[in-house]
Amino acid sequence: xxxxxxxxxxxxxxxxxxxxxxxxxxxxxxxxxxxxxxxxxxxxxxxxxxxxxxxxxxxxxxxxxxxxxxxxxxxxxxxxxxxxxxxxxxxxxxxxxxxxxxxxxxxxxxxxxxxxxxxxxxxxxxxxxxxxxxxxxxxxxxxxxxxxxxxxxxxxxxxxxxxxxxxxxxxxxxxxxxxxxxxxxxxxxxxxxxxxxxxxxxxxxxxxxxxxxxxxxxxxxxxxxxxxxxxxxxxxxxxxxxxxxxxxxxxxxxxxxxxxxxxxxxxxxxxxxxxxxxxxxxxxxxxxxxxxxxxxxxxxxxxxxxxxxxxxxxxxxxxxxxxxxxxxxxxxxxxxxxxxxxxxxxxxxxxxxxxxxxxxxxxxxxxxxxxxxxxxxxxxxxxxxxxxxxxxxxxxxxxxxxxxxxxxxxxxxxxxxxxxxxxxxxxxxxxxxxxxxxxxxxxxxxxxxxxxxxxxxxxxxxxxxxxxxxxxxxxxxxxxxxxxxxxxxxxxxxxxxxxxxxxxxxxxxxxxxxxxxxxxxxxxxxxxxxxxxxxxxxxxxxxxxxxxxxxxxxxxxxxxxxxxxxxxxxxxxxxxxxxxxxxxxxxxxxxxxxxxxxxxx
Amino acid sequence: xxxxxxxxxxxxxxxxxxxxxxxxxxxxxxxxxxxxxxxxxxxxxxxxxxxxxxxxxxxxxxxxxxxxxxxxxxxxxxxxxxxxxxxxxxxxxxxxxxxxxxxxxxxxxxxxxxxxxxxxxxxxxxxxxxxxxxxxxxxxxxxxxxxxxxxxxxxxxxxxxxxxxxxxxxxxxxxxxxxxxxxxxxxxxxxxxxxxxxxxxxxxxxxxxxxxxxxxxxxxxxxxxxxxxxxxxxxxxxxxxxxxxxxxxxxxxxxxxxxxxxxxxxxxxxxxxxxxxxxxxxxxxxxxxxxxxxxxxxxxxxxxxxxxxxxxxxxxxxxxxxxxxxxxxxxxxxxxxxxxxxxxxxxxxxxxxxxxxxxxxxxxxxxxxxxxxxxxxxxxxxxxxxxxxxxxxxxxxxxxxxxxxxxxxxxxxxxxxxxxxxxxxxxxxxxxxxxxxxxxxxxxxxxxxxxxxxxxxxxxxxxxxxxxxxxxxxxxxxxxxxxxxxxxxxxxxxxxxxxxxxxxxxxxxxxxxxxxxxxxxxxxxxxxxxxxxxxxxxxxxxxxxxxxxxxxxxxxxxxxxxxxxxxxxxxxxxxxxxxxxxxxxxxxxxxxxxxxxxxxx
Lengths: 601, 601
Hints:
Helix content of chain A: 55-70%
Distance between the termini of chain A: 44 Å
Shape of chain A: globular
Largest sheet of chain A: 8 strands, mixed
Protein name (chains A, B): 3-methylmercaptopropionyl-CoA dehydrogenase
Function (chains A, B): Involved in the assimilation of dimethylsulphoniopropionate (DMSP), an important compound in the fixation of carbon in marine phytoplankton, by mediating the conversion of 3-(methylthio)propanoyl-CoA (MMPA-CoA) to 3-(methylthio)acryloyl-CoA (MTA-CoA).
Catalytic activity (chains A, B): 3-(methylsulfanyl)propanoyl-CoA + oxidized [electron-transfer flavoprotein] + H(+) = 3-(methylsulfanyl)acryloyl-CoA + reduced [electron-transfer flavoprotein]
Domain Acyl-CoA dehydrogenase/oxidase N-terminal (chains A, B): 39-156
Number of strands of chain A: 12
InterPro entries (chains A, B): Acyl-CoA_dh-like_C_dom, Acyl-CoA_Oxase/DH_mid-dom, Acyl-CoA_Oxase/DH_mid-dom_sf, AcylCo_DH-like_C, AcylCo_DH/oxidase_C, AcylCoA_DH/ox_N, AcylCoA_DH/ox_N_sf, AcylCoA_DH/oxidase_NM_dom_sf
Oligomer: homodimer
Number of helices of chain A: 20
Largest interface: A-B, 98 and 98 residues
């Protein structure tokens, strides 16, 4: 199944919802003029459609394999990665003086989406490298930056993120890997790390592992973790490669999906200790790793959008081809393509509405990151940063949860053929399943949303976002009054208002009860996250509806379709918000199910 | 992961909700006394836990394989099937005079659930045989019954169901397989059938294929299809096996899940024609096949319950073992088993609530089938039959849709380990995915629910069931008034009333608009089905809550747990009903999304 990048929708969201023009006016982003951005996106589309997308099925059928410590990636991956490097695609959002293109995150995001839609497994390697670059740029020394970052930005080397150990998954307090200072500024690292994405592979000449470990005498828990650079090959001062470091890939996992992406078990220090270099200060490792993790979390949310869109395109193509049954309205005497059947339309519209809403929310979030980075005013920067940080767990959690549902609908549309592996729909269903788990499960995102992003500021940022939603409601109400409006604006306004009210109630509930009844609040944390995604997704779709309405004359089919999709979103997805809100605020004071002893399970 | 049959819950549902005592009082069901039923269920549990369940993982890792027309099933399957036959398990619900045990469907249903929880792939073989038995008992000649049925009931031979062809899946009007009369009462059958479950295997000495085909000059469409017996080996009058028939298994499918179950492509008549025997009258094949299909549809719904329960048990075991993070309420200073975390409890409770509600609804439906079969009064039989027929598509569609969600939650609870195939959680996620597709997709069930089961009688049966729901609300209200009641009864009553009202509105909408706006009604058909499942699942959980409350003293932990689960169901699942209802009734009069041209997709 070929992939067609949704360039029109991407540009619509960038221009109409994410304020690309304003961002291009910020210092440092002068290159992000509309024509340049369109050219970058079109070129990225071409590369991903032609080079990366065809390898998606190959990766599923011929996964990466391990032998004697070495990993051989899927045939074609290494060559495609060379083209990726040559095209400069790793550098899109990174510093110009270190070899990047210096484009804003809001422009890098569609490129990342296309890469992931083309091939989730392939895209994971650059995704982790991006995180390593951000961590080093923030916390690395000048020497470290100069030595590692340009080669990561070029893509010559790739990065990894080593957090998890067999006993330490979501709970990093349990990390045991240790790092012993050698007196020369370096450390010897010993321990086992698991689930290391692209922890070993044959696509680049070196791999820069960022590794969480404890130094001797470090405090217990997360306050005693430091972050180290442990390169696969040691690096001379001039950047040339030295000896092989004492880190070995002892196996890779046999997984449900993303089979081409090697998930490594890495053994550090079995032969005297792996040489590592401290990043920043001791015991601040988790803080630094969070930079990497936040970058990766945002990107994993984008993975959800990418795989959802790919599954949608696959299902549409099948639904237009497969002829089965006469139409229920008697409009034809013969069997018709199944896309004419209302339930198939409903499923396709659900897939598309989720995908477009989460895309719009992601790009809007990215635009806040860019404003947080480049706005002139410090208070403005702080405000945009807070909004971005509020949106990250919502985007990551919601976009990935919806991607599983969307991929599952994609299988369903194929009927029996969907269950046959050769059809290809099942791969998205398998691949998507990791997205709600890695880089922090949905529950971890929801804990972040509740604790750091809602309770800490008493719900101030959340309420600020909800005020913006209310503004959109007023715009809908104004538009609904016009004689030519039809029912769509009022339908959207009604559901958006009900959803916003429900979400506001939940924010109040979370703030009020987090201390007094933490079990009740955290039992509702994932529903709170999903509710936020549904309501804020509704908000951006409402804005899209208004913008498409204003531009209707320009490209009638595209804009009418956008309005139809937004209208579907309102009636079929946003309409679920009040029920979810009710279920959250009802959980209080030792609910029977929450209070009961775990032995009863 | 071992399987523990939920015997206590099964007996609770049979006795408290499905009226086992009343059914045992009906003529022909005298053997279904409580002690006998308990003994049957316990023995079935033992067999499935010890013999069938351990083969589940084996089947996934060593699927059935094809070579030169022959299928070799997973190692251990044939031997286990011999034990299944020896135990007489195929015969549980079938006629005593033909070798069965003559137990009511309400007793056979838990046995089928356990077989499926133990091993979906294995259970499919008997599932199809059951359908063949029912079709032959209803439409076969006396000679055919005498020749085939006893050997199917014993399990010596197995049955299959041959509907699908490459161009004819959901739409059987497109069937092309043809049958030519030979003048001696037999036919020669020619054609290709696909997706034939256990269409070829090595577990029984003969396979009785029931095949849809067209005779010469038959009308077009579904009114020109006849049903034929085409045995793999021809059968002499004394029941001994004759020559190999001209039906060949040319390949089996490479599937996402249920890999041990061979899904065959069968080629009929490549060497002169496969000998077939007409069942009943010509051109009434679809009607007869529907007997088989209804039996299989009910059983597939039960498959959903089985795999959901297995996934739940797997997740609970992991959640009790896996230690990660401190409790959010500060009740411990150390990391605890993750089952103590509120979000893990929420996920487990969701899994359990769905499973128990769909189990209760299934057994209640089965009890109506038994009353339809054996009640003394003809009007009563007709009434119970209509209720059963109304519940079948709801049960099939809802139990299977929920099983995918439950299996997905099971993966999520395992975190990263859930994505590793060796853990086993992923198998349920893959296996369950077929259940909403085969024996009629959820959309096909929903069409049945709308057309034959709601519109045809003007919503009379649906309204009758809703009147019973209202009765339960009154009982909840009465119980809620007592001083010792606590909030659970009123919470349940409130959500049940809102759900019932929403469902009633939808039934009115469906009846009112099916003719005038079929596209709108059928666009809401799957949501209508899911809404029905959620509300009727809530109804049986409400009844369970009241029954458990009345019996609280007898087994306090079990009954308190049941009340807690019902309470969770009310707040977290039933609470979604009004939003779904709203989304259905809002789709009217050429909604933008529904009206738009398919080229816009």
